[in-house]
Specification:
The complex is a heterodimer of chains A (621) and B (114). In chain A, 73% of the residues lie in helices and 3% in strands. Chain A is mostly helical. Chain B has a domain at 39-106: Helix Hairpins. The chains are: A mainly alpha (621), B mainly alpha (114).
């Protein structure tokens, strides 16, 4: 027994302590409980890793109790660890620990301090549940739980209307995805008679392609909701209303990658459904390009990174869609490093500028916040695919696999890589170069914030070749596409695209800061379109949200609720009142009339009884 | 001796038929009801109630005799006790009402209404 349950249980205990007693506890104790629970969880992961032996040969599988038992069908509370889960566990607990430490500094002056850490710990519990699950139902429990925590933390500043709206948006958009996911689970139950991974996956090869395609496409709907893919990506940019550590942990590094994890986990189903695979790849690629173009024109530093996250998630979908599952997971991991760093760095920048998020009011911060500047530079290099940084390896693996699948996908991916480099470095130059254009005196962040930045910067630089995921996961996914001999050239092209992006951003935003304005003016309509995110939110409002609200108002509220339901209730009341109005005339207050009614009643009763028994029957024997 | 008289004597020898008692009871009861409904003097109404109670008593006794069971007689005792109590309380109420209102007309005693 490895006692895997300890891993999620520790953050859950932290959640209980901080959630129940947090209001009364001093900050030092809250910090200790929150951080220690996650760090110990990380330590337990390390312990499992050290003692479990070769996970490829003997995956750990633990059964705690049977949750549902109905005839042949059984669902247990089962946890399992194989190599894929191990990677996810390290990412979640490792980055989770760093972000918890960072939050101590970042949230120091915020209201609801204990509430923040309680939610964060609860998130860790559900996320670990999600990755440890050995069947789809337990996975779904974690899946919904992280959605809940995401909602709670996006709406953390609940006195702000925009924050609560953003929380609702995230929750509601995710409902669509989760609806698809639950349908997929039902289909799996019907077709496989089980939900546990070790029963479903071996049986997948023998099922008809149509069934598998349906299941895979529905799983994709779920994954697209959680991982912010077209057409359900709209919630993620708004989710930036939450505190920055939340954006880093939930909306960049861990939760939003759950969709990629889930597809990778279900590789056995997807590999037998080529149409679904193709759909995954195309949706991923489209999302990558689409979000990258929006990222080019955003001025809010967190919005830039949010669209960048959507775009990078698209990359991961492209990877798993073309069959390079391990490359997708590799990018998941390296992305967790550099995107968590980008967000934490952005948080540090925002902290330095006293809450300012608009990059046009920043600038020149390299003098005031040198450590933030250096670490963010590392992250920006990594996401641009600069040679030998973390992003270089994983992005390259995905692009090569895409080339093997269909060369046009590779070229689109390369263009996206160039745009990615451009907008990330644009944000970097606008923030750190030039003169400070904001208010107050910017200042460097405390070491509790810089420490995690430095660690993540190290991981962003070397994490790619230290943790060679495809090597670790070798033989786990049989149909990994082989890379042709053109490897070196392909790598060269994608690296060049990244470097060109960096160079262009330097040219535009450092050497000639007036050029972007002119270009934006020259592009006119296209710029407005991109600046306003292609008006997707407005289109959704017009086509889905408003008809739904209007329909709910006029039909469901005024029609069904007020008309039918209230009408029935009020109608009963009115009728009773009417009948009572007639009956009250009987209550004359005249004793003799009462007596008359009694006599009439008695006579009527006797007559009725007499008729029932036969007139002579009862009276004379 | 006329024939009819013989018949009556024979019938008495066999006991008065049950139906006669019951018819008498019904007549008394109806008189009580009619009095209760149509008279306005409280005391008359009160006496009509007593009349109805006694009509019921007569039925009880009749059936008790016919079925040779004692329970009918016991019920009669209960009814008499209730009637006695009612007479005491009822007359006291009537007396008080009269003192307060100087009337015994039942139609004017309606202060519970409205």
């Amino acid at each position: 027994m490895q006692n895997l349950w300890v891993i999620p249980a520790l953050p859950f205990i932290g959640f209980l302590i901080n959630g129940i007693f947090g209001r009364k506890l001093p900050k030092a104790v809250i910090n200790l409980v929150a951080v220690l629970s996650v760090v110990l969880s990380f330590a337990w992961v390390v312990k499992v890793f050290m003692t479990a032996g070769d996970l490829a040969v003997t995956p750990v599988n633990e059964h705690y109790f049977t949750w549902i038992k109905s005839g042949e069908f059984q669902v247990g509370w089962d946890f399992a660890v194989d190599k894929l889960t191990m990677i996810m566990l390290f990412v979640v607990t490792g980055i989770g620990s760093l972000i918890h430490i960072y939050s101590i500094g970042y949230m120091a002056h915020e209201e609801g301090y204990y509430r923040f850490f309680a939610y964060l710990n609860l998130f860790m519990f559900f996320m670990l549940n999600l990755v440890l699950a050995a069947n789809y139902l337990i996975l779904f429990v974690g899946w919904e739980g992280v959605g809940l925590c995401s909602y709670l933390l996006i709406g953390f500043y609940f006195v702000k209307k925009s924050a609560t709206t953003a929380g609702n948006k995230a929750f509601i958009v995710n409902r669509i995805g989760d609806f698809g996911f639950s349908l997929a689970i039902f289909l799996i139950v019907v077709n496989f008679g089980s939900l546990s991974f070790d029963k479903v996956f071996p049986a997948a090869a023998g099922k008809p392609v149509e069934t598998l395609t349906a299941i895979a496409l529905l799983l994709l709907v779920g994954a697209a909701g959680k991982s912010a893919q077209i057409p359900l990506y709209v919630w993620l940019p708004d989710a930036m209303e939450g505190p920055t550590p939340v954006s880093a942990l939930i909306h960049a590094a861990t939760m939003v990658t759950a969709g990629v994890y889930m597809i990778t986990r279900s590789a056995a189903i997807f590999t037998h459904a080529p149409i679904a695979m193709e759909t995954v790849a195309i949706i991923g690629l489209a999302t990558a390009v689409f979000a990258a173009t929006i990222g080019l024109a955003q001025n809010d530093i967190k919005k830039v990174f949010a669209y960048s996250t959507v775009s990078q998630l698209g990359y991961m979908f492209l990877g798993v869609g073309v069959g390079a599952f391990s490359a997708g997971v590799w990018h998941l991991m390296t992305h967790a490093f550099f995107k968590a760093l980008l967000f934490l760095g952005a948080g540090s920048v925002i902290h330095a500028c006293h809450g300012e998020q608009d990059m046009r009011h920043m600038g020149g911060l390299k003098r005031y916040a040198p450590w933030t500047c250096i670490t963010l530079a590392c992250a920006s290099l990594a996401i641009s695919g600069f040679p030998f940084t973390a992003g270089y390896f994983s992005k390259d693996a995905i692009l090569e696999a895409a080339y093997g699948h269909a060369p046009w996908m590779y070229w689109v991916g390369v263009i996206t890589a160039g745009m990615t480099a451009f907008y990330v470095w644009r944000a970097f130059w606008m923030t750190f170069w030039g003169d400070y254009k904001g208010h107050g005196h910017p200042h460097e962040s405390p070491w509790s914030m810089l420490g995690p930045l430095v660690v993540l910067a190290g991981l962003s630089l070397v994490g790619g070749f230290v943790f060679n995921v495809p090597h670790i996961l070798a033989n786990m996914f049989p149909i990994e596409e082989a890379v042709g001999g053109a490897g070196v050239m392909l790598t060269g092209i994608s690296v060049a695209a990244g470097l060109i992006g960096i160079g262009l951003s330097y040219y535009f935003y450092v050497m000639n800061p007036e050029v972007p304005e002119r270009i934006a003016g020259g592009l006119g309509g296209i710029y407005t379109l991109v600046y306003n995110k292609y008006f997707v939110d407005e289109v959704y409002d017009a086509t889905v949200v408003n008809p739904l609200i209007t329909g709910s108002r006029s039909v469901l509220w005024h029609g069904v609720d007020q008309g039918v339901i209230d009408g029935a209730v009020n109608g009963v009341g009115h009728q009773s009142k009417g009948i009572g109005g007639v009956l009250k005339l009987l209550q004359s207050g005249n004793i003799r009339s009462y007596a008359t009614w009694i006599v009439i009643g008695a006579v009527a009763l006797l007559l009725a009884l007499g008729m029932a028994q036969g007139v002579t029957g009862g009276i004379v024997p | 001796m006329p024939e009819g008289f013989d018949q009556v004597r024979t019938m008495i020898g066999q006991g008065v038929p049950v139906s006669w008692y019951l018819i008498l009871s019904a007549i008394l009861f109806s008189l009580g009801v009619a009095g209760f409904v149509f008279r306005r003097n409280v005391i008359t109404v009160f006496m009509c109630i007593e009349l109805m109670l006694n009509a019921v008593n007569l039925s009880f006794i009749t059936f008790a005799n016919q079925h040779k069971q004692v329970s009918g007689q016991i019920f009669t005792f209960f009814v008499m006790v209730v009637a006695a109590a009612e007479a005491a309380v009822g007359l006291a109420i009537i007396l008080t009402v009269f003192r307060n209102r100087q009337t015994l007309n039942i139609d004017e005693i309606d202060s519970l209404k409205n």
